Amino acid sequence: MSTPTQTTAPKPFVPESRGEERDSSTWTEGTGAGTKISIRDMNFFYGRAQALHHISLEIPERMVMAFIGPSGCGKSTFLRTLNRMNDTIPATRVEGSVEIDGQDIYAPGTDVVELRRKVGMVFQKSNPFPKSIFDNVAYGLRINRMASSKIDLSERVEKALTDAALWPEVKDRLKSSALSLSGGQQQRLCIARALAVRPEVVLMDEPASALDPIATQKIEELIVELKKEYTIAIVTHNMQQAARVSDQTAFFWLGKLIEVNDTERMFTNPDEKLTEDYITGRFG
Amino acid sequence: MEQHRRLDRDLDHLRDRLLLLGGETETALERATFALAERDSETAQAVLAGDDDIDQLEVEIDRLCVDIIALRQPAARDLRFVISVAKIAPILERIADHACNIARAVVDLNDEPQLNVYVDLPRMAEHAALMLHAALDAFTSNDAAAAREVIMRDDEIDETYNRIFNKLIDMMVADSATTRRAARLLFVAKHIERIADYVTDICELTVYMTQAQFIKHSN
C-alpha cells in the first residue's frame, strides 16, 4: 500500500441536481450532531483500477449513516477505507483525506491497531473464534491489555454483551463454545466483541444479510440502541433496512457518491434522479 | 428487474382504476348538473343508480393501494403516487355522494314550481364540474402548475355560493311560501360548494405527488 497523497484543493463531489441546488456542505445540517468522520476528495485504487472517485462526505457523530447502491458500486470498499481495512489488500492506494475527530487516519505514523480499536467492524458473515463465548469477547481486551484485573475483565465482557443485547441469552453459558450459538446470536457476539474494546465508531458491512427476519430485527433494534453511544456506518443491500435504522443515507453508483441525504427525504423525495431510479427499482 | 416490472404493472393498473373512478364521478356530476338545469328527474335517477359502482371502485382502489404498499414497498415518486391515489379515491367517492344529493333534490323539487335562482345554480354546478375535469387532467399529466391554477378557481365558486345564499334567504324572508324549496336549494348550493373544495384537495394531492410539497392548509 502506497502512502496516500494529500490533495491541496479538495473539491467536494456535488452531483448534478434535478431541482434546487444542495451543496454537500449542508448535508449534515439539522442533525444537531458534530462531525465524527470527514472524508475529503477521496479516490481509491485497486492497482490501476479506480474504485472510488472524489468522495467527500461528513459522517455525523452518534448517528447511523447507511450506504446503499448496486453491487460493485464501491460502498463496501468505501466502508473499509474508514479503518484502513483495505491496507491488507496488495496494490491498493488512497488519495485525499479521511479524518476522524480531525486526525487524518492515512497520515504517516498513524497507529493502525489503535485506529481499528477506535473504529470497530462487523462483517456480513459472523466470524466468531472457535473459543468460548467469554473468550471471544475478552480477546480484544486481553491483547490490548485493557483490563486491570480478572474482575475488570469480567465486567467489561458483561458490559459488551449487554450492549450487544446478548447478555440475557448467554449469561449462564459463557464457557460454551461460541459456535454453539445461533447465526443471529453469533452476529451479536461479533458486535459484542467489537464493542468490548470501547470503539467510537462501528462499521457494519451487511450485518444482517445472512440472518432470518427475527434475528435481523434484533440487529436493527441493536443498531438504533447503539447510536446513543457510537457513530455507526452500515452498508446494506436492504433498502427497507436502511430506511428503518439510519438517520442519513448515502447512495453510491459506479464508485461515485451520488447523493447524501436525510433518510426520510432519501426515500420519499430524493434530490437526484439517479437515486430515485435506484430506490424505485428502475435501474438497468 | 422482474420485481420492478410487477410494480410498474401494478401502478399502471392502479392509475387505470383511479381514472375510471374519476370518469364515473365526472359523469355523475355532469348528469346531476344537467338534471338540475333541465329539471330532468330521469337523469337524476340515473345519477343515483350509478352510485353503487362508484362505491365499489373506491373499495377496489383501497385494496389495490394496501396490496402495493404491502407487497411492492414503493418508494419516492411511486410511494407518493400510491399515497395520493389512496387519498384521492375517497374524495372522488364523496364528490359522487354530493352529486347524488343534488340529484335527490332535483327529483324532489321537480314536483314544485321553479324558483328564479335556477340560472345561477346550474352555472355554479357547471363550474365545479369543469374544475373537477381540469383537476383530473392535471393529475393524469402530473402537472402541478395546472393543479395550482384549479385551486385558484375555488374563490369564484365561493363568491357564487355567497350570492346564491343571500338571494335565497331574501326570498324566504319576502315570501314564506318559497321556504321549503329555497331551503332545498340552499343545500344544493352547499353541495356544489363542497364539491369544489374536494376538487382543491385533489389538486393539493397532485402537487404533493409531483413535487413532494405539502400545500394543504398553507396560504
Topology order of chain B in helix (H) and strand (E) letters: HHHHHHHH
Q: How many strands appear in the DSSP assignment of chain A?
A: 10
Helix-strand string of chain A: EEEHEEHEHHHHEHEHEEHH
Helical stretch count of chain A?
10
Instruction: Please estimate the helix content of chain B.
Output: over 70%
Structural class of the secondary structure composition of chain B?
A: mainly alpha
Give the averaged pLDDT of chain A, no decimals.
88
Terminus-to-terminus distance of chain B:
43 Å
Compact overview of the structure:
Chain A has 284 residues and is of the alpha/beta class.
3D structure, described in words:
- The complex is a heterodimer of chains A (284) and B (219).
- With 284 residues, chain A is α/β, with parallel strands linked by helices.
- Helix content of chain A is 32%, strand content 24%.
- Chain A has helices spanning 75-81, 112-118, 133-143, 150-163, 167-170, 183-196, 213-226, 239-245, 263-268, 273-279, and strands spanning 35-46, 49-60, 64-68, 92-100, 103-104, 119-122, 201-205, 231-235, 248-253, 256-262.
- In chain A, strands 6-7-8-3-9-10 form a 6-stranded mixed β-sheet, with helices on both faces.
- Residues 1-32 of chain A have low confidence and may be disordered.
- With 219 residues, chain B is mostly helical.
- The radius of gyration of chain B is 19 Å and the shape is elongated.
- The mean pLDDT of chain B is 94.
Give me the secondary-structure topology:
The complex is a heterodimer of chains A (284) and B (219).
Chain A: E1 35-46, E2 49-60, E3 64-68, H1 75-81, E4 92-100, E5 103-104, H2 112-118, E6 119-122, H3 133-143, H4 150-163, H5 167-170, H6 183-196, E7 201-205, H7 213-226, E8 231-235, H8 239-245, E9 248-253, E10 256-262, H9 263-268, H10 273-279
Chain B: H1 2-38, H2 41-49, H3 51-72, H4 76-109, H5 120-140, H6 144-152, H7 154-174, H8 179-211
Helix pairs in contact in B: 1-2, 1-3, 1-4, 1-5, 2-4, 3-4, 4-8, 5-6, 5-7, 5-8, 6-8, 7-8
